[in-house]
Specification:
The complex is a heterodimer of chains A (216) and B (155). With 216 residues, chain A is mainly alpha-helical. In chain A, helix 5 runs antiparallel to helix 6 and helix 6 runs antiparallel to helix 8. Chain A starts with a helix and ends with a helix. Chain A has one domain. Helices cover 79% and strands 0% of the residues of chain A. Chain B is globular, with a radius of gyration of 16 Å. In chain B, helix 2 crosses helix 7 and helix 4 runs antiparallel to helix 7. Chain B is mainly α. About 14% of the residues of chain B have low confidence. Chain B has 9 helices and no strands. Classes of the chains: A mainly alpha (216), B mainly alpha (155).
Chain lengths: 216, 155
């Protein structure tokens, strides 16, 4: 095999002459084109992941939700929680920025891959944190509903219609609805995220694993 | 820029190994050019320009480049790039080379990088520094690749 590879090497070096040659102008045109590198995609997707949950909070239907929180009597807890979420999000954004800055195409391949994966991992932790915060919100709401004496206060508009149903039954139905919605929302968001994450990094993970495997 | 133009064959060679058709070749070439251009301010002249170029080109091909191979069929493209001049080789050698190129193309990204540096006559120190593995491991890996190529060629 060594002989064959040597043969291939000779041939390979001879072939240099057959390679296309681009003019200065052609290359110059290229450098102004947009890069489609994985690092750029990671940056775009990560920024989206950092901002989307925040945008969600300010979306119009959320105002109604805030009223409902008020009616349940948990708005203070949720306010404290959102402060915590902002603080942690800022910490993650800072971490992400630090790691992103470290990525350099001049590094050796293994380090480059390691740094990209580490940057992405920061975002992964942020997403896991966000998802668990959704769950915490849901749990606070369920506890709020449970502790509430007069359940019909939560949605005053429906008070008349709800009078025929027994309060206990209403309470359980409401708690179950919130719980199931919450779990579904978290699951769907989680699935979408990890699918995207997996697809984006499949090749990178494979190559990194191959380089790392050599060390053992 | 001029240096880039002078050394563009390095980039073309990486592209031939990592892509299967002309479109993807140009696509990867463009991406590597962009990366080289972006990284150029950080080039301090400590290493040779070409050494630096090998690193950026390979990193782009195996790590940053996102698009996967569009098709496996390589016939038309190879006819252009791997034009084998019949008068220079005898039949068996030509056939053997063709099979070798085909086998190399079936290797994984990392394996291809090693073979590429080997074909470019780089020593194991340079190979290990480019990929970020130890020299011993680079040798081990190269031997494994040779075995792999042998299995592909003589199944």
């Amino acid at each position: 095999m060594t002989d064959e590879l040597e043969l291939l090497k000779k041939d390979w070096q001879k072939k240099t002459a057959d390679l296309p040659t681009l003019s200065y102008e052609e290359i110059h045109k290229m450098i102004w084109k947009k890069s489609s590198s994985i690092v750029k995609w990671i940056l775009i997707i990560s920024i989206l992941e950092f901002t989307l949950p925040q945008l969600l909070i300010f979306a119009p239907p959320m105002e109604e939700a805030m009223q409902i929180y008020d009616h349940i009597g948990v708005s203070n807890y949720l306010f404290a929680l959102s402060l915590l979420i902002y603080a942690v999000a800022l910490y993650f954004i800072f971490q992400f920025y630090q790691r992103f800055k470290e990525i350099s195409v001049l590094d050796n391949s293994k380090n480059l891959m390691k740094k990209i994966l580490r940057t992405r991992k920061t975002v992964k932790h942020y997403v896991l944190f966000s998802l668990s915060m959704i769950m915490v919100t849901i749990i606070i709401m369920i506890i709020g509903v449970y502790l509430k004496q007069d359940i019909t206060e939560i949605v005053p508009e429906l008070k008349d219609k709800l009078q025929d149903i027994s309060p206990d039954k209403l309470k359980i139905t409401l708690m179950l609805t919130i719980g199931i919605m919450g779990i579904l929302l978290t699951l769907v968001m989680g699935c979408v995220y990890f699918l995207l994450y997996g697809l984006l990094l499949r090749k990178l993970n494979k190559n990194y694993a191959e380089l790392r495997q050599l060390e053992f | 820029m001029t240096e880039l133009q002078d050394n563009q064959n390095i980039v073309h060679k990486v592209c031939t190994l990592y892509t299967n058709d002309r479109d993807s070749h140009n696509d990867l070439f463009q991406e590597i050019t962009i990366q080289l251009w972006k990284a150029y301010p950080k080039f301090r002249g400590e290493a040779k320009f070409s050494t630096w170029m090998y690193r950026v080109a390979l990193n782009t091909a195996i790590t940053l480049y996102r698009k996967s191979k569009k098709r496996i069929d390589t016939q038309d493209y190879e006819a252009v790039i791997f034009k084998i001049k019949a008068d220079e080789y005898d039949e068996t050698e030509e056939q053997q080379l063709k099979l070798m190129y085909k086998a190399v193309r079936q290797l994984g990204d990392v394996d291809k990088a090693l073979v590429f540096l080997y074909l470019e006559d780089k020593n194991y120190t340079e190979i290990s520094e480019t990929l970020g593995i130890t020299e011993v491991n680079a040798r081990v890996k190269m031997n494994r690749i040779k075995t792999k190529l042998r299995t592909i060629l003589n199944p």
